[in-house]
From TrEMBL:
Domain D-serine dehydratase-like: 254-365
Top-rank taxon, per record: Bacteria
Pfam family for this entry, one: D-ser_dehydrat
Keyword Magnesium: no
Keyword terms: Lyase
Species name: Aliidiomarina soli
UniProt-recorded name of the protein: Alanine racemase
Length: 368
């Protein structure tokens, strides 16, 4: 195992711990097997062909993505079962048609209007009807069961449609805290989804495929009644938000940002790092106990020769961002030891957005 060459890092740099990430991948794969469901990881978290191979090595064959561009990227890398887990955009019809000719493509819709676009396809696709069971982002409200039933059967009549299913993303689990709260979201969402399915008329009802998933519930729950596949994504890296709500432990976080210190302000218990909103994103969390009631955009981690330990540095966190600057609250004793150019290793609030913003990253072997 080689030591991390810290001297080669000159600016903000994403670090991916190979050991932790592959362990996270393998754990979720095993959970899916034990629960009797297919695993379709959401690749929007890492967006990397190289990291995608780690999933394939663990047994993954089907993936979800959040854009046509991402679908094209992974189709070119050899993936042949791809779900576009975002409502259909009619302006991308040409690219979607080409993708559907090269792989088994699943599209997501949430209104009858989308069927006009499906009718214009020359290739066959699978269709998922997105259901909103309480998250409130996209999808048909779960209580509009007649509408959902009619849409499923209308879709099934189209010659371009091979199979129709229901898709759920219980993103409200991200606002939960602890296993009991995550379990409540999980059970309520699946119960509502089951009620929707029960009210869908034949012939669609008997052949519906059900896809659900989010990292908190998939990480903490052991069974997924009524579900054929799960679609977590953030679990490959996890992040500060996931640790805060209890979806993972500190040692599961597999992505951090190495950030040079560019200014020191002992009089205000702060240093400033070169890592701002364009690197860490604007996602944050609040905790009166750990972060003094301030917004926390990232937690400083204990550094090691191989990357970072699975432990935070108490009292050291990013509490303010501008475009390129990150204001880091730090204990006075630690500020005294910190010099300009030193690197801080910071676990971001939301790893998906950090990875999307940075694109480039460094894979480290990590500590076993």
């Amino acid at each position: 195992m080689t030591h991390l060459q810290w001297q080669h890092i000159t600016g903000p740099r994403v670090l991916v711990d190979r050991f932790r990430a592959q362990r996270n991948i393998q754990r979720m794969q095993q959970k899916a097997i034990q629960a009797g469901v297919q695993l379709r990881p959401h690749f929007k978290t890492h967006q990397s062909v190289e990291i995608g191979r780690w999933f394939r090595e663990a047994g993954t064959h089907a993936i979800a993505v959040s854009s046509v561009r991402m679908a094209q990227q992974f189709e070119s890398a050899g993936w042949r079962d791809i779900m576009l887990a975002i409502p259909l955009n009619p302006r991308e019809l040409s690219a979607i048609n080409q993708l559907a000719g090269n792989c088994s493509l699943t599209l997501t819709i949430e209104s009858a209007d989308a069927l006009d676009t499906i009718r214009r396809l020359s290739q066959d696709v699978n269709l998922m009807i997105e259901i909103d069971a309480g998250y409130g982002r996209t999808g048909i409200d779960w209580q509009q069961q007649r509408l959902i039933s009619d849409l499923a059967n209308q879709a099934l009549q189209l010659p371009q449609v091979r199979q129709v299913g229901l898709l759920l993303h219980a993103g409200n689990s991200y606002q939960a805290s602890g296993d009991s709260a995550i379990q409540q979201v999980h059970e309520e969402s699946l119960q509502r989804l089951a009620e929707v399915k029960a009210h869908i008329a034949e012939p669609a009802q008997s052949q519906l495929f059900v896809s659900a998933g989010d990292t908190p519930t998939c990480s903490r729950m052991q069974s997924f009644p009524g579900v054929d596949e799960i679609r977590p994504g953030n679990y490959v890296f996890y992040d500060l938000q996931q640790q805060h709500i209890g979806a993972c432990d500190w040692d599961d976080i597999a992505l951090t940002l190495a950030c040079p210190v560019i200014a020191r302000y002992p009089e205000r218990n702060e240093v400033v790092v070169h890592a701002g909103a364009v690197h860490l994103s604007k996602d944050y969390l609040l905790s009166k106990d750990r972060y003094e009631g301030r917004p926390c955009y990232g937690q400083v981690m204990q550094i090691s020769e191989h990357g970072w330990h699975g432990k935070p540095v108490d009292g050291a966190f990013v509490h303010g961002l501008s475009q390129e600057h990150g204001k880091v609250r730090m204990p006075p004793a630690l500020i005294e030891q910190t010099r300009l150019g030193d690197l801080l290793v910071i676990a971001p609030a939301h790893s998906c957005l950090t990875m999307a913003a940075m694109h480039d990253f460094m894979i480290i072997q990590g500590t076993r």
